[in-house]
């Protein structure tokens, strides 16, 4: 009878070990699968950030540039009127008499800020593209870890291939290996 209990305990012990291995493998696969899904969602969130941010930045820079263009046009036209004037009566610009000597001596050129805005736009675009690149790399790493886990020798025997299918990493668009043309 003692021998029977030892064999039964051995079988139950083996079943318990197999169950614990399966549970560990299954839970790890779930965790890795969820990590892959989270990383892909992060890629999508970064794309959404770009879609929301870039048009607003471009509109702001365009508006600032158009505003400065208008100011510079008005200043240039005003200067042209002063230079063309031959008498003090000719210097009536916008209903104001202008003292040429004082105006020319203290006139300051408007500060051009649109160049700074364009630099800021470039910085934001570069930062956004870097965030997208990092998100894609993190996604690919998560896919690699997941696929390595589910394809392992023992794990592939325990895990259902329909529940835990192999995932594909981020794929580049056709032609993306070619540098884009930049035209102004």
Q: What do these coordinates show?
A:
- 72% of the residues lie in helices and 2% in strands.
- With 184 residues, the chain is mostly helical.
- The protein has a domain at 38-83 and 112-158.
- Strand 1 (92-93) and strand 2 (96-97) form a beta hairpin.
- The model has no long low-confidence stretch (mean pLDDT 81).
The fraction of residues assigned to DSSP E strands is: under 5%
Estimate the mean pLDDT confidence.
81
- The count of DSSP E runs of length 2 or more, i.e. the number of strands, is 2
Oligomeric state of the chains present here: single chain
Element pattern in H and E: HEEHHH
- Per DSSP, the total helix count is 4
Cα-to-Cα separation, first versus last residue = 92 Å
Overall morphology: rod-shaped
Question: What would you call the structural class?
Answer: mainly alpha
Which sequence of strands runs across the widest sheet?
1-2
Low-confidence stretches: none
Features:
184 residues; 2% strand; rod-shaped; mainly alpha; two-stranded antiparallel ribbon
Summarize the structure.
The protein contains 4 helices and 2 strands, in the order αββααα.
């Amino acid at each position: 009878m003692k021998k029977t209990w030892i064999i039964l305990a051995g079988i139950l012990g083996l079943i318990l070990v197999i169950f614990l291995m399966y549970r560990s493998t299954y839970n790890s696969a779930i965790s890795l699968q969820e990590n892959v899904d989270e990383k892909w969602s992060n890629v999508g969130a970064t794309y959404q950030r770009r879609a929301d941010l870039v048009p607003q930045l471009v509109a702001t820079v365009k508006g600032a540039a158009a505003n400065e263009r208008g100011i510079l046009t008005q200043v240039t036209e005003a200067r042209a009127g002063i230079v063309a004037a031959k008498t003090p009566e000719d210097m009536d610009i916008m209903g104001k008499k202008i003292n040429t000597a004082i105006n020319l001596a203290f006139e300051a050129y408007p500060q051009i800020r649109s160049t700074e805005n364009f630099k800021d736009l470039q910085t934001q675009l570069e930062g956004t593209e870097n965030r997208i690149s990092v998100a894609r790399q993190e996604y690919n790493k998560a896919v690699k870890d997941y696929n390595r886990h589910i394809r392992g020798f023992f794990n592939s025997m325990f895990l259902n291939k329909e529940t835990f299918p192999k995932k594909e990493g981020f794929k580049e668009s056709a032609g993306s290996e070619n540098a884009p043309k930049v035209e102004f």
